[in-house]
Design brief:
By secondary structure, this protein is α/β, with parallel strands linked by helices. Helix content is 33%, strand content 26%. The chain contains seven helices and ten strands. The strands form two sheets. It has a six-stranded mixed beta sheet with strand order 6-7-8-3-9-10, with helices on both faces. The chain has a four-stranded antiparallel beta sheet with strand order 2-1-4-5, covered by helices on one side. The structure holds adenosine-5'-triphosphate.
């Protein structure tokens, strides 16, 4: 499912003045791509993701997924936020099913499979308050995947997690992507994460937000951070930040 993003302009009102946030963005993603979007704080990454999700339609331009123009949010576009947004009064399996009937045997089977995929076996009946941040985020991912989205949009999903949990969830996400071939678009502050996960890294620059570079990452999966080739590609991506003179605003 090809995704075509054409944003002529996106502005917000601030102090009764219009502030341009995104300017002249043209991006085309192929079905099954794992896109990572990186750029300095405030360059408009989340705004771009919300526009692709149909959560923000107040802009000049269009987003087309397959043959459908995005006009509103829908279940074919899963969205994972930095914080998990689980229902505190529902168990893990109920949170995954949410509005779908868990009593239906086929659905129960799908939920069980997803619990396996995100490695939450044994926690089916647990409540969100009994889970760590990483586990909660895995529930949110399973909930989105149950809807079999054509595209999964992830806004700094691991930003609030410790480095160990973050690396673990990156591997979980890669496994899911390899298995389902769902198109993923993930926003991050972390260059390492963008190179570890992405088949293409979109490097944005700010004021107003524009696409600086789109860098294909041709390393095979699973990737090894310690490999020399990984380090070379990572340095290549970092160099592009330096060229954009915005390296200081981004975590190395
Ligand atoms: N609802 C809004 N109303 C007004 N301004 C907004 C709104 N949402 C975002 N902005 C502004 O738009 C700009 C881009 O915000 P956005 O959250 O998209 O950036 P970002 O690159 O995702 O930032 P970060 O990396 O810090 O999360 C910022 O200057 C922000 O203040």
């Amino acid at each position: 499912m090809e995704i075509k993003v054409e944003i002529k302009e996106k502005a917000f009102m601030k102090d009764q003045k219009s502030v341009q946030v995104l300017d002249d963005i043209h991006l085309t993603f192929n079905s099954g791509d794992f896109i990572t979007v990186i750029g300095p704080s405030g360059c408009g990454k989340s705004t771009l993701l919300k526009i692709i999700a149909g959560l923000d339609v107040d802009y000049e331009g269009s987003v087309v997924i397959g043959s459908n123009e995005v006009k509103k949010p829908s279940i074919d576009k899963g969205f994972i936020f930095q914080e998990h947004r689980l229902f505190p009064w529902l168990t893990v399996e109920q949170n995954i099913a949410a509005n779908l009937p868990l009593k239906k045997p086929e659905l129960r089977e799908q939920v069980n499979q997803l619990i396996n995929i995100v490695r939450l076996n044994g926690f089916e009946k647990a409540y969100p308050k009994e889970l760590s941040g990483g586990m909660s985020q895995r529930v949110a991912i399973a909930r989105a995947l149950l809807r079999e989205p054509k595209v999964l949009l992830l806004d700094e999903p691991f930003g609030a997690l410790d480095a160990f949990t973050r690396q673990h969830l990156q591997d979980v996400l890669i496994d899911i992507w390899l298995e389902t071939k769902t198109t993923m678009i993930l926003v991050t502050h972390d260059v390492d994460e963008s190179v570890y996960l992405g088949t293409k890294v979109v490097v944005m620059k700010s004021k107003p937000g524009k696409v600086g570079h789109v860098i294909p990452i041709e390393l095979p999966f699973p990737r090894q951070r310690t490999d020399q080739t990984f380090q070379e590609v990572r340095n290549h991506v970092l160099k592009h930040f330096e060229q954009l003179d915005q390296y200081s605003a981004v975590e190395g």
